[in-house]
Amino acid sequence: MRNPLIKRLPRELKGEIGKYIVLFLFITMMIGIVSGFLVAAESMATAYDDSFEKYNIEHGNFELLQKADDDTIKKMENGDEKVKIYENFYVEEETKEVDSTVRIFKNRADVDKICIMDGELASNDEEIAIDRMYAENNKFKIGDTITLGGKKLKITGLVALSDYSALYSNPSDTMFDAVKFSVAIVTDELFDEFGEANLHYSYSWKYDKAPVDDKDAQDKAEELMKHINGISPLTQFIPEYSNQAIHFTGDDINGDSTMIAVFLYLIMAIIAFIFAITTGNTIAKEANVIGTLRASGYTKAELIRHYLATPMIVVLVAALVGNILGYTCFKQFAVSAYYGSYSLPTYKTIWNADAFVKTTVIPLIILFLINLIMLINKLSLSPLKFLRRDLKKRQKKKAFKLNTKIGILKRFRLRVIFQNIPNYVTVFVGVLFANVIIFFGLAMKPMLLHYQEVIENNMIAKYQYVLKAPVETETKGAEKYCAGSLKTVDDKLNEENVTVYGIQKDSKFVKADIKDDGVYISDGYSQKFKLNVGDEVTMKESYGDKKYTFTVDGIYDEPAAIAVYMTDSEFLKTFDLEDGYFNGYFSNTEVKDIDDLYIATTITKDDMTKTSRQLILSMGSMISAFAGAGIIMFMLIIYLLSKVVIEKNSQSISMTKILGYNNREINSLYITTTTIVVIASLILSVPIVNVTLKYIFIAAFAQYSGWLPYYIPAYIFVEVPLFGIVAYAVVAFILTRRVKKVPLDEALKNVE
Fold it and tell me: Of 132, 254, 590, 605, which is most buried by a Cβ count within 10 Å?
């Protein structure tokens, strides 16, 4: 064997077998989970991307007040932007078995085709095929009966509609809802039987010449919108590039891949620092050996390669095992998570090199670079300094004096802290990062429940009706209002729909002193766009170029909404409407004397709380996994770094044993010192974590419609440090056993 140092590797692994097994298992688990998610995400993303061509997904859709005849359609198709327009009418009906709404379509043969996940499409007017995810969430299965519009229909198939991979019922919704909203397919004959009361005249279009990018798509859509709106008034116009129901899934999958890869890199950086610190401790213990080897002719490069070998081997094997587990066991967990959130078509697993690079090559590079820098620094001393065990680069400074009034034990503990500052700094950073993960896992569900509570407590009315045309009601307590929709104009955030209300003076529902020459904005609008009283806010037409600028007179307490409130007279004046016009009612009781034909939308508590419901459903298992990973990581970091402190001070511990101190007294010096640092880190990290998470959540939700107020309940701030203390108690018990094992003859070894 050319290099005898290789013979030392098995002995070094065996000597620290406990540490390496713990690190191996943790790294294997993390890489396995990440690998599984990346493989699943890549496969899902490929299936999603292919679906645009495979299922001929629309370039957009629009809705009209009434059905367009053939001549009107031809005029629409023959504008500057040549398009092919397809009927894609739908009706919406409430279900009897569960509290939900189903959007019913005819079978599609030309555009937005259907993926049959299980069973088959309806073949007669007593059958229906419903969305797979909605069926799972509501415990429907093939052969069950679902009642829609008074018709009992047999479920014959579970499907995924290519233009509803995320079940958004409205493009302005903050979040899709796969619990109380579904899409479904029936025969043409049954569709016609539902009548016109809840019929929506929706059309899909495909360009003759597809857009080359989003900018081209935007330009084409603006031209087409003006053209169609000039022929027949639009009630809705949604280009494909801005359709959340189509694009949210793809954006989220790609975002998940990036986020989980970055998460792995951060963990690997911390693991690399732990390896660097433990290797540095090994170098300190083996200083005489290193000095002898250097004096015998071994180069610094050979020693660097030797000390790099063990951590690199451990991580490489862990990465390989983790990838095998990821491609097999963990992949299915990720697939289930995606199918539990989105109505994706069937997919095929794609083995890709990108996942291997992200989970193996990059972590190895991170480990290599961090440890290489440390080793170059540590091994840059002369052989003589290693032989003398003088590992300080600078001349040893005299230790600063501690006040003699401080008790001897307290002074001893302070010395231990000062001698191990690099280790304890790493402990603090590790605790901080672990706490971010734990806080996220524990706080996400309470924040969503709080969001739901905020919405319920701040709803303008129990029932909010938007009408297609002004219709009177005799419902007691119902109050008229005007409503419209504009879009935000902001360079930093995506365009967002803003609901504009025209409110009666002395309104019983919106209690705000609104003047005719100004507006109130919702608290959510204020927070998201950083607007205050006195600021000017500019918005534009949803289907035009006209812009409107208003002065903010006040902030209305509605934290989850993006809305503007003005007087009804100012609303009519601003939007050039005739006196007496209104198109909605606020009511705390259900309005029953208006025909459904005249009601465009009914907004209730269920509609407002769909975001929290869906996020809890989609992220439930993930949230728990985050909290578990954080606790495991916390225990791992504390154990390994505390172990280094004990090993570094093993000679001093041995000397105190010779001097007659018992194990309990020695624990009070070393274990208690580490305990103080850990508890201080837990407490000090809490406010930092709180601020960090606040900005993470603001950035994460800024690109979504609506606003999710940041909130962490007070008990979480107590719960997390308590979790940490309990977890550390387990670690401290293990460390006390290590103190017991320090032999008395250790004090006679390696005397400087």
Answer: 132
Structure tokens at 43: 């496969």
User: What pTM, to 2 d.p., does this model score?
Assistant: 0.69
Q: Are strands 151-161 and 127-131 parallel, antiparallel or unpaired?
A: parallel
Mean pLDDT of all residues in 680-704: 82
Nearest to 288 by CA among 403, 163, 146, 390: 390
Which among 382, 374, 326 has a CA at the least distance from the CA of 41?
326
Q: Do the Cβ atoms of 492 and 581 come closer than 8 Å? A: no
Angle between helices 421-457 and 663-701 (to 10 degrees): 40
DSSP secondary structure code for residue 360 in this structure? I
Q: Which string of DSSP letters, residue by residue, matches 14-46?
A: HHTHHHHHHHHHHHHHHHHHHHHHHHHHHHHHH
Between strands 497-503 and 151-161, the pairing is unpaired
Residue 21 confidence class, pLDDT cut points 50, 70, 90? confident
407 in the Ramachandran plot: left (φ > 0), alpha (ψ -120 to 50) or beta?
A: beta
Pairing of strands 181-186, 101-106: parallel
Read off the pLDDT of residues 186-212 as tens digits, 9 standing for 90 and up.
999 999 998 887 889 999 999 998 888
Q: Quote the tokens at residue 226.
A: 């003006």
pLDDT value, residue 1: 47
Give the pLDDT confidence of 232-272 residue by residue, as tens digits: 888 888 888 888 888 888 877 776 777 788 878 888 888 88
Residue 63 reports pLDDT greater than 60: yes
Q: Which residues contact 160 (CB under 8 A, 6 or more apart)?
A: 114, 115, 117, 131, 132, 133, 343, 344, 345
All residues at 6 or more sequence positions from 524 whose CB lies less than 8 Å from its CB, including other chains: 558, 559, 560, 561, 562, 563, 706, 707, 709
CA angle 494, 496, 500 (to 5 degrees): 155
Q: How far apart are CA 134 and CA 178, in angstroms?
A: 5
List, for residues 556-608, the tens digit of each pLDDT value.
988 878 899 999 999 999 998 999 899 999 999 999 888 876 777 787 777 66
Q: Are 599 and 465 in contact (CB under 8 A)?
A: yes
The amino acid sitting at 83 is V
User: Residue 622 — pLDDT band, cuts 50, 70, 90?
Assistant: low
Q: For the stretch 253-271, what's the b/e string if a residue is b when 16 or more beta carbons lie within 10 angstroms of its beta carbon?
A: beebbeebbebbbebbbbb
Q: How many CB atoms within 10 Å of residue 469?
A: 10
Which residues make Cβ contacts (< 8 Å) with residue 602, sequence separation at least 6?
463, 464, 465, 466
Q: 741 exposed, middle or buried (CB, 10 Å; 0-12, 13-18, 19+)? A: exposed
pLDDT at site 85: 94
Q: Indicate the pairing of strand 60-64 with strand 519-522.
A: unpaired
**Mean residue pLDDT across the chain:** 83
Beta carbons of 81 and 207 less than 8 angstroms apart: yes
Asked if 245 contacts 171 with a C-beta cutoff of 8 angstroms, the reply is yes
Residue 508: per-residue pLDDT = 92
Looking at residue 501, what is its pLDDT? Answer: 94
Q: How far is CA 694 from CA 260, 459, 710, in A?
A: 19, 25, 6
What letter does residue 82 receive in the DSSP assignment?
A: B
Task: Give the Cα separation of 488 and 499 in Å (integer).
Answer: 10
Sign of CA dihedral 400, 405, 406, 407: positive
Mean pLDDT, range 86-110, rounded to an integer = 91
CA angle 317, 318, 321 (to 5 degrees): 85
Distance CA 608, CA 500 (A): 17
DSSP bridge pairs for 185: 105, 129
What letter represents residue 150's amino acid? G
